[in-house]
Design brief:
The chain has 358 residues and is an all-beta fold. It has strands spanning 2-9, 20-27, 32-41, 45-50, 56-61, 73-80, 86-94, 100-105, 111-116, 121-126, 138-141, 157-164, 172-178, 183-189, 197-206, 213-218, 224-229, 234-239, 245-250, 261-267, 273-279, 283-289, 295-302, 308-313, 319-324, 329-335, 342-349, 353-357.
Length: 358
């Protein structure tokens, strides 16, 4: 099986050395990435998301000035080529906030939601039938701060996720991770409203002081959400609507946590294992997901480079690919289907990689 993959990068600032968005073809039979190249030039295309149809790709341009205004941007691309290896620019619009660091699409692909890190906000954009991004229709401003004076002097919107799951506590549920205030903001997401984000009651869950909620993921079958805390190097396990905390589990040994920061959190193919990347300790932690949804740390392995910002599991579930921001390499691990053990098998040169999707 061959599938297309994409890597978001930094082109300047934060040690940026790339020139845009990489694309590559991944051969899941051989465990090889092929034709790795810059598919579209762009400025700091830091975080990427594909439409459900895989016909369009959207990127946050993590900048602080766009078209003469103090804001970042969102760029839309058409996916082309026989296997999705080509990207053609469609348009870009203001993100309505500085340093946009994450973009997500709702289940229908009708809206994109961007997290603006320096602005401490989430902004909503319509997605048109031709794949282009429309102008912002809603801005949600977060508030608060945390005890870490260097990282939590104000709200910092970092991640947004939504789902439509009939029969669960909140069937149209969305949450936003605010690293600066240690808050997980809670919303109903109604695509039929002019402004689709509607705060729930209570509007947020207050995480542990100094934890720094960064990224989150829903369990595909259970009413549970997992939140990776960047500053505390922990994972919080919540009931699906983030009303109650079920578990907090460390990602690293206590002696290794100094100076380390958690980055990405993702499931293996069958949701029996959850993986978390950590910078500074430069590792991938593997957790066993138990029947009740709680976690058990199985093992920690070196990521194969410096600053593993993001990783992806290929569509077959047999491989895990990690991009490293500082060591400029893409590392391929084989996943043992029975034990979940990761074995490094290959690596490739890829400059300033900070996001990978497949």
């Amino acid at each position: 099986m061959t599938s297309a993959g994409y890597i978001g990068t930094y082109t300047h600032g934060a040690g940026g050395r790339s020139t845009g968005i990489y694309s590559f073809l991944f051969d899941s039979d051989a465990g090889e990435a092929r034709d790795l190249h810059i598919a579209a030039e762009a400025v700091n295309p830091e975080f990427l998301v594909l439409s459900a149809s895989k016909k369009f790709l959207y990127a946050t341009n993590e900048i602080n000035e766009f078209q003469g205004k103090p804001t970042g941007a969102v760029s839309a691309f058409a996916v082309g080529g026989a296997r999705g290896e080509k990207l053609s620019f469609i348009n870009h619009v203001s993100s309505m906030g500085k340093s946009p660091c994450h973009i997500a699409l709702d289940n229908s692909g009708t809206y994109a939601v961007v997290s603006n890190y320096l602005e401490g906000s989430a902004t909503v954009f319509p997605i048109h039938a031709d794949g282009s991004a429309g102008e912002c229709i809603q801005i949600v401003q977060f508030t608060g701060n945390g005890p870490n004076k260097e990282r939590q002097e104000a709200s910092h919107g970092h991640f947004f996720i939504s789902r439509e799951t009939p029969g669960m506590e909140c069937p149209n549920f969305a949450l936003a991770c605010d690293l600066g205030s240690d808050r997980i903001w809670r919303f109903a997401f109604d695509k039929n409203r002019r402004k689709p984000l509607l705060p729930l009651d209570p509007p947020f869950f207050q995480s542990a002081a100094g934890s720094g909620p960064r990224h989150a993921i829903f369990h595909p079958a259970k009413d549970i959400v997992y939140v990776a805390n960047e500053l505390a190097c922990t994972v919080d396990v919540f009931s699906g609507a983030c009303r109650s905390l079920l578990q907090t589990i460390p990602v690293l040994p206590t002696t290794a946590a100094a100076g380390a920061t958690v980055a990405a959190i993702k499931f293996g193919a069958d949701a029996r294992r959850l993986y978390v990347s950590t910078r500074g300790y430069d590792s991938i932690a593997s957790f066993r997901v138990m029947e009740d949804g709680l976690l058990e740390l199985e093992r920690i392995v070196p990521s194969g480079g410096r600053m593993p910002r993001d990783f992806a599991v290929d569509p077959t579930g047999a491989y895990l690919l990690v991009c490293h921001q500082e060591s400029d390499n893409l590392v391929v691990f084989h996943i043992d289907r029975k034990t979940g053990v990761l074995e490094k098998i290959r690596e490739y040169k890829a400059l300033s990689g900070v996001c990978i999707i497949m």
